[in-house]
Design brief:
Elements (H helix, E strand, L loop, with lengths): L2 E3 L1 H10 L3 E5 L3 H6 L6 E2 L5 H8 L5 E5 L7 H11 L5 E4 L2 H7 L8
Parallel strand pairs: 1-5, 2-3, 2-4, 4-5
C-alpha cells in the first residue's frame, strides 16, 4: 500500500532530495493550467500504458491529483503497485493542499 505524504514532507523532500519523480495524474489541460514545479504529467487514464516507458521501478515515485476528495492519486498508486513499482507514495491533498500550504505552483 502506498505511503501517504503531506505537503510539508513533499516540500522538504524537494528542497533536499531530488531522487524521486513527481507525477501529476490529472488531465493534460489541468496540468497545463497549474501544477507542482518539477512534476511530469501522466493522466490516470494513460498511466498503465505509459508508466513502463517513463518510470523506473527502482526510483521513488510520488503521485498526486487535485485534492483529497478524489481518489485519482490513490488509484494511480494502486495501478503502479500492481505493475510492480514498490517505492510509491501518494501525496495526500494534491495540488489543493500544496497551494493551501503556501507553496508555489508552475503556471503556463
Amino acid at each position: 500500500m502506498a505511503r501517504l505524504m503531506s505537503s510539508t514532507e513533499l516540500h522538504a523532500r524537494m528542497e533536499s532530495d531530488n531522487e524521486f519523480v513527481l507525477v501529476d495524474v490529472l488531465s493534460p489541460e489541468d496540468y497545463n493550467e497549474e501544477h507542482i514545479p518539477g512534476a511530469i504529467n501522466i493522466p490516470l487514464e494513460k498511466l498503465k500504458d505509459v508508466a513502463s516507458l517513463q518510470l523506473n521501478k527502482n526510483q521513488r515515485i510520488i503521485v498526486y491529483a487535485d485534492d483529497h476528495t478524489t481518489e485519482k492519486s490513490n488509484q494511480a498508486a494502486l495501478v503502479l503497485e500492481g505493475m510492480g513499482y514498490r517505492k510509491v507514495s501518494d501525496f495526500d491533498g494534491g495540488l489543493h493542499a500544496w497551494k493551501q500550504a503556501g507553496f508555489e505552483t508552475a503556471l503556463p
